[in-house]
Amino acid sequence: MISRTLDLGGPLHYQDFGGTGPTMVLVHGLGGSHLNWMMVGERLARRARVLVPDLAGFGRTPLAGRSASVSANQALLDRFIQAVSPSEPVILMGNSMGGALSVMQAARQPQRVSGLVLVNPAQPRAQDTRLERAVLTMFALYAIPGVGEYFVKRRVARFGPEKLARGMLQLCCRDLSRFPEEVVKAHVEFARERHERMPWGNEAFVEAARSLVFLLMRKKQFREMEKAIRVPTLLVQGSEDRLVPVANSRELARVRPDWTYVEWAGVGHTPMMECPDVFLETVERWLEGAGRTAAEVGAKVSRAS
After folding, report:
1. Which residues lie closer than 8 Å to 256 by C-beta, 6 or more apart?
2. Which distant-in-sequence residues (6+ apart) come within 8 Å of 233 by Cβ?
3. What's the gap between Cα 28 and its chain centre?
4. For 51-62, what is the mean pLDDT?
5. Is there a contact between 96 and 249 (Cβ–Cβ < 8 Å)?
6. Which of 252, 277, 251, 279 has its CA nearest to residue 264?
7. How confident is the model over 170-203, as pLDDT tens digits?
8. Does residue 82 have a pLDDT over 60?
9. Quick one: CA dihedral 144, 145, 147, 150, positive or negative?
10. DSSP secondary structure, 18-59, as one string
């Protein structure tokens, strides 16, 4: 894993896991970074060239005068794809907010995407979805100008980076023991680094969260993007996800029955960290089936359109 930086209207940091074959770009979620893929990147690189960018305002990519909204980061993701794979489309793998960004990219720039792996993707709420009150309250606060900034600032001052990092992981999975110790340690150490050296982190988080809330409130428009996707897609979901309830992905699977849908019992929001072996086995099976043709079929469709 090599750390690299591109200049895309400001520095963009990404991790290069190497590998040969089709380019695979892994996109983290809200509050995440390249570290979210640390347990799976190396093994995926046996089948593809694997690159893991930090979005603007997250990981080691500064805002540098840029916006951290989902629309701005989708545009930045598009520029990244053009820079690292100028002649061939890529397979996009996105978790949570990164899943929503991957949907946006595939719908808006179909010629640059050959396949999708959506991992507990952020998406509009299903009719029978009930979010936990604490989670619903938290995102409602993020959505209010001024209040969201104050709320995050107070939490940082009260708990500090280590408790916040552990709390974020626990929100993703109720039982921290489900995460390998090296994952917990890496996220805690990186939270300290961001707290000490990256003062723009809180601003970016709130801006991204607020824009994500408003994006997903427009269910009809978002569904139109999902329906417009014409590349092989794997949708995976943990049944115990507190942030993206399983009912959401079940509804999406009914909207797109042509997609491959896999659901794991007892798994939370970040299966690539909670159960990396099971996650990798699922992705590898898909890559040997529908995903094997993703680059070839996606490229043909894109060039014909």
Report:
1. 226, 227, 229, 233, 235
2. 115, 116, 117, 118, 256, 259, 260
3. 3
4. 97
5. no
6. 279
7. 999 878 888 999 999 999 999 999 999 898 899 9
8. yes
9. positive
10. E--SSEEEEE--TT--GGGGTTTHHHHTTTSEEEEEPPTTST
Q: According to the model, what pLDDT value does residue 298 have?
A: 38
Q: Does residue 128 have a pLDDT over 90? A: no
Q: Where in the sequence is the domain holding 193, given as residue range(s)?
A: 2-304
Token pair recorded at residue 166: 């552990």
- For 211, the token pair is 């824009």
Mean of the per-residue pLDDT values of the chain: 92
Residue 300: its pLDDT value, please? 44
Which tokens belong to 203? 């601003």
pTM of the model: 0.93
Number of domains present in the structure of the chain:
1
Residue of 146, 119, 128, 279 whose CA lies nearest to 210? 146
d(CA 285, CA 295): 16
Q: Can you give the CATH number for the domain in which 168 is found?
A: 3.40.50.1820
Angle at 115 between CA 299 and CA 298, to 5 degrees: 15
